[in-house]
Amino acid sequence: MATGAMVMERLLSSISQLFDEAKPPHFLQMHTGDYDQSALQGFADQHEEIQSWLIEQLLGFDSAAIGWNRSGTGESGDFSDRLIDNLFVTQHTEFDFLVGMDGSMTVEVMNALTDAHRAGSTIVMVTHDPKCAARADRVVYLRDGRLVDERAAGAWTEQSADTRADDLLAWLRGLGF
After folding, report:
1. Is residue 114 packed enough to be buried (19+ CB in 10 Å), middle (13-18) or exposed (0-12)?
2. What share of the chain is helix, strand, coil (3-state, %, to 5)?
3. Which candidate, 103, 168, 105, 97, places its Cα nearest to that of 131?
4. How far apart are CA 94 and CA 123, in angstroms?
5. Angle in degrees, 0-180, between the axes of helices 106-118 and 2-22, rounded to the nearest 10
6. Beta 58-61 vs 75-78: how paired, if at all?
């Protein structure tokens, strides 16, 4: 029970810090079907407290197509029996949800995540960037929704950054990345 409580406390702490760092929207509306773009623009124009807004399409994904395979134990499966929707957001051309389009915020975001992890928070990151992945203590490589391999990397340090990124990229290329 104590371990579960500790995990929940760290998870909530991580989410709180991510919320502070990422500055997510104060209001989010999910909608299915048609909508009136001009009516939404008119509403935003009439409310000066609305600093910015956007509409972004979510793409549904078949849960049965997301599978996993743990080579060490031979276990495998998919998510076809899950009751959740798997939705992916499309990239907006004017706004990147995590970093600047030129990558300018990557170092700041990664430093914040590294600091949170060092303070005891659990971080789960999904990325295609080997330099970002090189900061992780453990890297899990997925291809086509399936576990290909994983490796423990130990604690990241500023001094080991370039070597870790090069080693990780070599490992990933050996796996077909």
Report:
1. middle
2. 40, 15, 45
3. 168
4. 27
5. 160
6. unpaired
Tens digit of each residue's pLDDT (9 = 90 or more) over 118-151 = 888 888 888 878 888 899 888 988 887 788 899 9
User: pLDDT for 3-33, tens place per residue?
Assistant: 767 777 777 777 677 666 665 556 666 667 7
Closest-CA residue to 64 (of 142, 140, 126, 145): 145
Residues 6+ apart with CB under 8 A from 113: 18, 21, 123, 125, 135
- In order of 1, 14, 25, 43, the CA distances from 46 in angstroms are 51, 36, 19, 5
User: How many Cα atoms occupy the beta-carbon half-sphere of 10 within 13 Å?
Assistant: 15
